[in-house]
Amino acid sequence: MADKRMTPDEIVAELEDGMTIGIGGWGSRRKPMALVRAILRSPVKDLTVVSYGGPDVGLLASAGKIKHLVFGFVTLDSIPYDPWFSRARETGSITVTEYDEGVFGTGLSAAAQRLPFLPTRAGLGSGVMDLNPSLRTVRSPYDDAEELLAVPALKLDAAFVHLNRADARGNAQYLGPDPYFDELFALAADRCYVSTEKIVETAELAEAGPVQSLLLSRMLVTGVAETPNGAHFTTAVPDYGRDERFQRHYAEAAKDLEAWPKFVDRFLSGDEARYQKAVAEFGESA
Q1: Phi-psi bin for 238: left (phi > 0), alpha (psi -120 to 50), beta?
Q2: Residues 44/111/198/205 CA torsion (nearest 10 deg)
Q3: What is residue 20's predicted lDDT score, i.e. its pLDDT?
Q4: What residues form DSSP beta bridges with 47?
Q5: Cα dihedral 129, 151, 48, 60 sign
Q6: How many domains, the chain?
Q7: CATH number for position 224
Q8: What's the number of CA atoms in the CB half-sphere (13 Å) around residue 205?
Q9: The pTM is what?
Q10: Within a domain: residue 265?
């Protein structure tokens, strides 16, 4: 069996300018932040980012990595809006495709099934149609003749997800309350990369949780990186909850363009080990 272990920087080195990448998780929950930070350290640019967005979107926008964003929402959960996302929308520095949660998920499902589109009732009669005039409807060929929204597939060049546990072959497991849409991100992508709190022996995955918690098969995974605390400052329950104090610090710095360079210098100017050291020192200062 292939050993798929990689470092975050090795994973990001496989990206190219202009790629479409999907980022799993949900808002400020179980985001692959160590991989996002690796993108910040890299020269890659002009990305199309597809995300149920949280601080992943804000941080990538802050560094000018995003050319186009496809999103169902962008939020920090306990803080309604990510300041960098708000700034990007206000200044028009990125182009966007704005869906609702249902339309976004239908687009991922279409790509996961290798279909050009999927029909849904989601989005009909809402502002989604006004915001996306290129969307088309189809009519059921059966007796009901119902008109449905035809959501185009959200095809991804690469997907990044963060799971609680994985083995070296890429089998990956969530231990929290919700798988979110991580499996769809993996299925919709040509390549899927997993960051995980801990790489364990395969037998330990079965011991840690029920079979349905084994979310990703190794057949879907190109590379896996062990990144303890790698979802910080988002949640990765049951390993840890959201670091609310740090998230507030991030949001306050992101609102203030004069304060932001100091935040970057303290937390984002080095590698992942330096980030985790700075976070630990920040926690000790509370």
Answers
A1: alpha
A2: -160
A3: 98
A4: 66
A5: positive
A6: 1
A7: 3.40.1080.10
A8: 27
A9: 0.97
A10: no
* Count of residues in the chain: 286
Which amino acid type is present at position 70?
A: V
Which helix (H) or strand (E) is 120 found in, with range? strand 117-120
Query: Could you tell me if residue 2 is inside a domain?
Result: no
Calpha distance 186→159 (Å, rounded): 6
Task: Show the domain range for 179.
Answer: 8-100+154-242
Q: Are 270 and 279 in contact (CB under 8 A)?
A: no
Per-residue pLDDT of the chain (286 residues; tens, 9 = 90+): 599 999 999 999 999 999 999 999 999 999 999 999 999 999 999 999 999 999 999 999 999 999 999 999 999 999 999 999 999 999 999 999 999 999 999 999 999 999 999 999 999 999 999 999 999 999 999 999 999 999 999 999 999 999 999 999 999 999 999 999 999 999 999 999 999 999 999 999 999 999 999 999 999 999 999 999 999 999 999 999 999 999 999 999 999 999 999 999 999 999 999 999 999 999 999 7
**CB atoms near residue 258 (< 10 Å):** 7
Structure-block tokens of residue 48: 């199309």
Cβ-count burial 230-254 (b if 16+ within 10 Å, e if not): bbbbbbbbebeebbeebbebbbebb
Whether 20 and 156 have beta carbons less than 8 Å apart is answered as: yes
**In angstroms, what CA-CA distances link 59 with 34, 55, 132, 249?**
12, 6, 26, 13
80 within a domain of the structure (yes/no):
yes
Between the CA of residue 161 and those of 14, 21, 179, 244, 253, what are the distances in Å?
A: 16, 11, 11, 21, 26
Tokens coding 118: 């999927």
- Domain presence at residue 247: no
Give the pLDDT of residue 286.
Answer: 78
